[in-house]
Fold:
Amino acid sequence: MEFYNRETEIARLHDIQKQSLATARFTVITGRRRIGKTQLLLYATKEQPTLYFFVARKAESFLCQDFMQEIKEKLQIPILGDASSFGSLFKFLMEHSKTTPFNLIIDEFQEFFHIAPSVYSEMQKYWDVNKNESKINLMVCGSVFSLMHKIFENAKEPLFGRATHLMKIRPFTIPVLKQILNSHHPSWTPDDLLGLFCFTGGVAKYVQVLMDEGACTTWEMTNTIIREDSLLLQEGKNMLVEEFGKEYATYFTILSAIARGENTRSKIEAVVKREVGGYLTRMERDYNLISKAIPLFAKTETKNVRYIIEDNFLTFWFRFVYKYSHIIEIGGYDELKKIIARDFPTFSGKMLEKYFRKKLMEENRFTRIGGYWDRKGETEIDLIAVNERERFAEFIEIKRNPSEINLDILREKSHSFFRTTGKLKDYSIRYRALSLEEM
Structure:
């Protein structure tokens, strides 16, 4: 698949590279695994002198041998002796950049935490001493969110406060997903777009896997994901086991409960059969995996909270792959595909709400976007989009099938919202129905 989008990120990286010609720049690039961080950095620096260091899990001395070979090949400079520590190598590069500017990309930067944690304090020392005279454009990225967060945002860590720029790489936007489908399958249907959104969430690698396989319809995507040699069957486990460590089974049970709709704390605890407050806090704050949803205009301290898995692919993976792993273990791929076909209309119906929320956010027409529900479960509104400057709001009902939407019922629900919250009474109100047809 060709390189899509990222014009804004590339332009920003080019600006930072120009700034590094005056004084050293230190950019931290974060984003979930498979989002395309490495490809973005390589693409943005492809016509510039660039060193690429991949931090594999092996002895520090062996890593330095690999890095020295990269320096010789890319910068055509001899290095006397053998550098056995990354600190001494980094010191050499900082000093060399004073006369010869270049980019340095360090991929999977968090792996030094397992190989040689002292690297971070050594880098701090040589960065602080040389940064004002050096002209290095240092870019580091990593896919283990908790460790990257610890390295750069924990005040006790040596590299805290050293980054000059922080960039978070996000999934493809909805217009880009449409562009990709147009390139590979011009006759795509709204259901195909919804399938691509549900299965990938716009994560570059997953989109690439499907497009390279020619899987452009929802059914073809399902066939590609659910088969013996699929890259994606183990992806959820590969992503999260290292994040969670020995307690991963408990975290997985919680995420599985949320994925199938058991999304309040009481319901989650009924599934897990233990107190889960600490787990939920860590998944939200330390791992950036879930978020708390509260009704629009509710107070932040409200207990009327629902938990949402932020990542579409992980929502699908926990709902179908992890839940039915016993079927996969006996090779029942066709049986699992039948289960997905049976349950996908309901599953994708909830994801359609997420699609339109994302679409409205990307349009930048509103100042607040959210759902509304009361604690008794008697009144629920899929989306309310508010423009506080122009004082208008849209109340939106979302269904796959437009024939199932009744705007009169939506109006009745809005009256309950007005009575309960006291909000938007003097606003211009519009009632909308959104379905597959409006994608």
